[in-house]
C-alpha cells in the first residue's frame, strides 16, 4: 500500500480523547483494555461484509461505513445491550484515500452518535472484506434472547417493513416513484439501540430483522419451541412499499426481504402497555409450532423463508 499501515491507522482511525468511559486503552498497543462494571455482562457480536456478496463494489463508501457499523449495533440492540466499543478488521485491495475518507466518515459518525469507541482492529491487503466486532453492556441476566417467547405473547415490529428490500429492488432497476426513503433504509439503516434498551424489562424475546421478517421470526419460534400467527394486514408498510406490491403483486416482499434492521419482539399480554410508542402488533405466539399467516381472512402456513446464507434463492 502506498500509505503505510501505521500512517493509515493514525490518519483515519485514531482519536485523541476517548468517547466511552469503558475505554481504558484504545488503539495503539497490542490489545485494547475495557473496564466492565461488576454488575454487567459483556455482549459481543461480529458481522462481516464482503464485496459483491453483501454490497455492490461501487457503493458510496460513506454508506458502507455506516451500514457495517449499523448491522453490528443492531445485533446489540436486539439483545438489549448498550454499545460501548467496536473493533474493525479491514482487508483492502489498496489504500485508496478517497474511499478511506468516505468510509471512516460514515463509520465514525455513527460511532459518535452512540458514543461507541473504536478500540482497535487489523488492516491487511486483499479482496475488500470488512469485519466489525461490537461490544455492549447488559444488566446481569437481562439479555433479550431468541428463546424467551411464550404462547399468548403478542408479536411486535418496531417500524415499517420492506423498505430496505424495496431499496435493493430499486438498485436492481425497479422504477419507483418515491425512491428516496427506500434507498436510505437500504444504504443507511439506523440500529434500534434505544428501543432495545427500553425493551429490557418488557419483551420476552427479540431479534433484529436482517434476513427478512419470516426468517428472523422463525428463529424466535424455533429457539422458543413455539409457533406464531401473523396478520399480513397488520404489518406496517410505507406507501412506496404498498405501491410496489400493488404494481407487481409481490406481496411477499415484507416477509422475505431483509436489511430493514427493525426489531421483532414478543411481549406477555400484561406488559403490552409498556411497549414504547411507534411499535406495531402484528400477531400472536401460539403453542403449535410453525409460522402461520392470516391474509385476506385466510390462514396459510408460511414456508417460504427470507434469505438464508448458503441457500440458493438470493444474493
Ligand atoms: P499488531 O501487529 O499487534 O496486530 P497492528 O499493527 O495490526 O498491531 O495494529 C496497531 C494498532 O492499530 C493496534 O492497536 C490495532 O488494534 C490498531 N488497528 C489496526 N487496524 C485498525 C483498524 N482498521 N481500525 C482500528 N484500529 C486498528
Ligand atoms: Mg495486526
Describe the structure.
- This is Thiamine-monophosphate kinase.
- Residues 28-137 form the PurM-like N-terminal domain.
- Substrate binds at residues 54, 259, 307.
- Its EC number is 2.7.4.16.
- Mg(2+) 4 binds at residues 30, 45, 75.
- With 315 residues, the protein is α+β, with helices and mostly antiparallel strands.
- The protein folds into two domains: 5-139, 60s Ribosomal Protein L30, Chain: A, CATH 3.30.1330; 154-301, PurM-like C-terminal domain (Phosphoribosyl-aminoimidazole Synthetase, Chain A, domain 2).
- Helices cover 30% and strands 27% of the residues.
- It is built from nine helices and 13 strands.
- It has a seven-stranded mixed sheet with strand order 8-10-7-11-9-12-13. A four-stranded mixed sheet has the order 3-6-4-5. A two-stranded antiparallel sheet has the order 1-2.
- A hairpin with a 2-residue loop joins strand 12 and strand 13 (298-301).
- Helix 2 packs parallel to helix 3 (97-113) and helix 4 packs across helix 5 (180-187).
- The longest helix is centred in the first third of the chain and has 19 residues, at 61-79.
- Residues 306-315 have low confidence and may be disordered.
- The site of adenosine-5'-diphosphate has 13 residues, from helix 1, strand 4 and strand 5.
- The site of adenosine-5'-diphosphate (ADP) has 13 residues, from helix 1, strand 4 and strand 5.
